[in-house]
Amino acid sequence: METIKSKQDFERVFRSGRRYNHPLVRTTVLREGCAGRGRVAFVAPKRLGNAVFRNRCKRVLREAARSCGLPGNEADVILFATRATHDAHPSEVAQALGRLMERAHVQ
Predict the structure, then answer these.
(1) Is the model's pTM score more than 0.85?
(2) Domain for residue 64, yes or no?
(3) In the 8-state DSSP scheme, what is residue 17?
(4) Is residue 81 part of a domain?
(5) Which end of the chain has a smaller Cβ tally under 10 Å, C or N?
(6) What residue numbers bound the domain in which 13 lies?
C-alpha cells in the first residue's frame, strides 16, 4: 500500500479532489494525474482527541482500507477519521469505504 507523504501531493488532492462523506469516514478522492499508481493517506485531526484516540482511528482506517483493496490503481485517496471511527469495527468502516468508492467511481 503506497501512501501520500508530500505536502504538495496533499495540497493537490485537497485542491482538485472530490469530497465524499459518511458518518464513519470522510474521503477526498482525486482520479486525475495519478500516473497509474493509486495512493492513500490516513488523517486523524487533533480535534478528535489525544494521540491514543487518534492512533486507534488510523489503525481502524488502515485495516478497513486493506480489506477494501484501496488504493487501487486509479486514484489518490485521503481518508479522514471521525469520532465514530474510533468505536467502529474495521469491517463496518470497510463497508462504508466501499459505498464511498462506488460513489466516487473508483474500483
Answers:
(1) yes
(2) yes
(3) P
(4) yes
(5) N
(6) 7-103
Q: Within 13 Å and on the Cβ side, how many CA atoms surround 63? A: 14
Q: One digit per residue, pLDDT tens: the chain, 107 residues?
A: 788 888 998 899 889 999 999 999 999 998 876 566 788 999 999 999 999 999 999 999 999 999 988 777 778 899 999 999 999 999 999 999 989 988 888 76
30 in any annotated domain: yes
Q: Which residue type, as a one-letter code, is found at position 10?
A: F
Using CA atoms of 3, 5, 8, 11 in order, give the dihedral in degrees to the nearest 10: 70
**Residues making up the chain, counted from first to last:** 107
**Does residue 1 sit within a domain?**
no
Strand 39-43's sheet: what is its strand order? Answer: 18-21, 25-30, 76-81, 39-43
Task: Tell me if residue 91 falls in helix, strand or coil.
Answer: helix
DSSP state of 54: H
- Which letter does DSSP use for residue 46 in this model? G
The residue written with cell numbers 462504508 in the block is: 96
Give the CATH number, domain containing residue 32: 3.30.230.10
